[in-house]
Write a structure and sequence with these properties.
Layout: H1 3-13, H2 30-40, H3 42-50, H4 62-72, H5 91-108, H6 112-121, H7 126-134
């Protein structure tokens, strides 16, 4: 039994018989189920946040989790669930970015976090900052 079999049952089939077999208890992981269900659609993420994340103390066993997810998640259409992963900046650019942030923070006597916040908030281009630091003019 795979994680995706549980997902299919919770989202599409709604039979609720997969945990009747004791061998499947080990395969069912509530955390992973919630994570994959929230990646299905933003609406399911809202439902999970409003229900299971707030009422987790009432679910004592995996069977309770399974029944809770079956009843709270509405039956929906089949859709491929794309795994959402964190975007990582390239290591080389990240090192250069950190050096520039450190230099500015030291010069202006503010924290690196503040400098990063300003860069993000005002959509500052690091290449432009590098040119200014070198003494070149910005186009």
């Amino acid at each position: 039994m795979l994680l995706f079999d549980f997902l299919k049952d919770i989202i599409y089939r709604k039979k609720g018989d997969l945990l009747d077999n004791p061998e499947n208890h080990q395969e069912f992981q509530p955390y992973l189920m919630q994570r994959w269900l929230s990646m299905h659609s933003p609406n399911l993420a809202k439902i999970i946040n409003a229900t299971t994340n707030r009422l987790y103390t009432t679910f004592e066993t995996k069977q309770d989790w399974y029944r809770g997810l079956l009843t709270t998640i509405p039956k929906t259409y089949f859709k491929k669930i794309n795994y959402i992963k964190k975007n990582k900046k390239e290591k080389e650019n990240q090192k250069e970015f950190n050096e520039i942030i450190s230099f500015i923070a030291k010069n202006k006597q503010i924290s690196k976090r503040e400098v990063e916040m300003y860069v993000d908030e005002f959509n500052l281009n690091i290449d432009d900052i590098k040119r200014v630091l070198k003494g070149d003019k910005i186009k």
